Amino acid sequence: MIVKEIEMLSQLLFHERRRINILLQTNDRRNGERRQRVEAYSPERRRPASRIRCQEREGIVLPIRLEIEGKDRVGHMVNISPGGVMIRTNTPLREGLEVFLHLFSEQDAFSLRLFGRIVFCRSLEERGSLSQAVGIQFRTSGEFNQKVLAATIDLISKKDATEDQFGISILISDERHLVEKQPGALPMLPLISKAITQIREMPINQITSPETRRTTVGGRRKKQELRFTPDPDWVIKMNQSLEPYRQVILQSRLVQETSKGQLSLKQIRGWNIQFYPFIHSVPHFIALNLARANDPMSRTYLIDNIRVEKRHADQWVDMAQGFGVSTEELFQSPILAEVEALTHWMWSVTTRASFIESVAALHYAIEGITQEIAAIMVKELNKYKLFEWVHLDRKACQWMEMHTRYDHRHPYKALEIIKLHAVSLKDQEKVKEATQRSLEYLFLALEACYVAFA
């Protein structure tokens, strides 16, 4: 009995000493009080640091264009500081989501783009549609980038935002690779604005591309046509020198006879079989370009393009099967040397050449001419429905129709990326050479398919 009583007494003393030591050793009054309270920690208790940060922010109420996972949402900005921005919206958002933010002014002609992430989302007690307060933390680095952002915020705060036509566009996505961390400079386009002059004069070597904007017409949202920057002289001269190469492809026997319904079924099947490995590899080429993209405009374009091209590979299989090509023929047939050379060239330029050369070779050259080829070929595609074993339903024609419908803007978007990066004469010459070489290889591949299956 005595032993048991001693053990119980020692346990009581141990727990008492532990409680006393915790209270004595703590240096934080809030933590000590929190341990003594029985109730759980309340999220409404705010730290003093958060109050200080709130006082440092500029209270600017500004409507925003908010895109969440590809859908437009209602929202407006509450305040902004060089460290982040607070917005209000009607959609609850998860902490950690990646954010791409675009701040612009049409009157002062400046555009600031930067990355961030959501650090909190709180439900407000106020009644109304905008019931969620969302905090977004900017990811900026470098003293100059911080000054640019601070000067831009100061410029907005001193003027009437609506009167000066200021705007803010925020893209939020659950995909981490949409907004990649950049250890270097802030990924932004140049500021042709008063914000730049308030800091210091600096050479501008990048060009801002106007974005697609949405307006409200008759109570409904209407998408305006995408506007592109004017082509400099070197781009105009490059296109003039490349036009004969494009015309040779468009006037090739395979393209023209298909557009008239005169190409033999054997040649069409052979063309479908031969080009499938290249079509299947296009998303891989784009992924290699995406890994080297260092600005938000390029990354956004390439990410969207990967999603589209992944569907195109499946649509190509549907088209081949519609023309009577079996799965075994499509996947196991030997590839002609000229067609394989096109695929090898693209692997080479996307892995060994510069980023801007690979964009020119794939997106500007191949995607641009592919849209024109599809627009020509689709005219008389229905004539092949008369052939036996041909079933050209809507699914089988989707590859042609999709390229004709929405791929026409891809090469122009790629050209905006080219104009953004190709600032030296050497880079501009490399862009021209890469574009020309892709067109040459494509022509050789088309001619080889026409001759081999004639």
UniProtKB/TrEMBL annotation:
Keywords: Oxidoreductase. It comes from the Bacteria. Pfam families: PilZ, TENA_THI-4. The keyword Oxidoreductase applies. The keyword Protein transport does not apply. Coiled coil: none annotated. Residues 253-441 form the Thiaminase-2/PQQC domain. Gene3D superfamilies: Heme oxygenase-like (1.20.910.10), predicted glycosyltransferase like domains (2.40.10.220). InterPro entries: Haem_Oase-like_multi-hlx, PilZ_domain, PqqC-like, Thiaminase-2/PQQC. Residues 53-142 form the PilZ domain. One of its GO terms (molecular function) is oxidoreductase activity. This is PilZ domain-containing protein. It comes from Candidatus Manganitrophus noduliformans. The lineage of its organism: Bacteria, Pseudomonadati, Nitrospirota, Nitrospiria, Candidatus Troglogloeales.
